Amino acid sequence: MTPEDRKAAIAAHKVKASFFEDVIEAIYSAWLSPGDVALDCGANVGRHTRSLADVVGTEGAVWAIEAVPMLAARIFNRLAPEHQDNVHIICAALSNEQSFAEFFYLPEVIGWSSLYESHRPPNREVSAKRLIVPAIRLDDLMPLIERCDFLKADLEHHEYPAFSAGRRFLETRRPLIAFEFGPRAPATAGFAMEDFFGLFDSLNYRLMDIFGLDFEPSRWGVDPLLPLYFIACPSEKIAQFNMIDLSGINLRQLALARERGQA
After folding, report:
1. 162 CB contacts (<8 Å, ≥6 apart)?
2. Domain spans of the chain?
C-alpha cells in the first residue's frame, strides 16, 4: 500500500469505525479453518464472536470474554442456534491479575467501556456506570483452552497489561493476535513502550501494523500513518501469515469505503 492509501484507510476508519474491524475479520477468515479455536477478548456485542463462530464452524470453538453482563447476555441471545454449544462466554474483564475490578460501562458509547474511569471519547460528555466485575488473566484460561489459533483483543488501553499476565498462555498456545493499541495506552495503563516491545520480543512474536508493515520502536510517536490496529504473529508462523494478501484486503476495504462515500 502506498502512503496515500494508508492515509485514506485511516481517514475512512474515522468516518466509519468498522473499517479496520472488517479488515481484521478478513484476516482471521483467511487464517482460520473449520475446527480451529479462537478467543475474542473484549467481545462487546459479539460482532467478531459471531463471525469467528461461522469461520471455525460447529467443530471448532470460540471463547468470548466480556466484562459487562448485559453485553455478554446479548452475545448469547444473538448466537445462531448451531453455535450455542461451541461458543463459550466468560463474563469477566481480562486483566493482569485475578480479582474483582471496577469497570466503567459507557451506555452511550459502549465501545469505550473499560477498566479506566478517565477513558472517554474526546470532546464529548458521556455518562458512565460503575460496575464491579470479576477480573481474570489469560493464564487462568489455560485449563479451559488447550489450543488457541487466533486471539482478538480490544481492551481499551489494557491490552499490554493483559498480555503481560498471559505469558504462559502465549508461549504455549502461540495464537495469531490482532489487537487495538492507541497512543494514550502507555500513560493510561502505566507502562513504558520499552516494556511493550520487550514483551513481544521475549515471546518471539513479530509485530506489524494492520497494513503489514513492521511495528518497531522507531515508529512510535513519530509516524503519522501508524494506525490503531496491529498484528502479532509467532515468528515460526510468519511464512504462513505472509500467504495472506494483507495489502489486498486493505485495498478492497478502501474501495468499498470509497463506493459508499466513506473515504
Report:
1. 41, 94, 95, 96, 137, 138, 153, 155
2. 3-94+147-259
CB-CB neighbours of 95 under 10 Å: 23
* Confidence (pLDDT) at 14: 87
The predicted structure's pLDDT at residue 123: 83
CA distance 96 to 109: 24
pTM of the model: 0.96
- Closest Cα to residue 151, out of 41, 75, 31, 23? 41
The pLDDT of residue 249 is above 90: yes
Mean pLDDT on 78-92: 90
Q: Which CATH architecture has domain 3-94+147-259?
A: 3-Layer(aba) Sandwich (3.40)
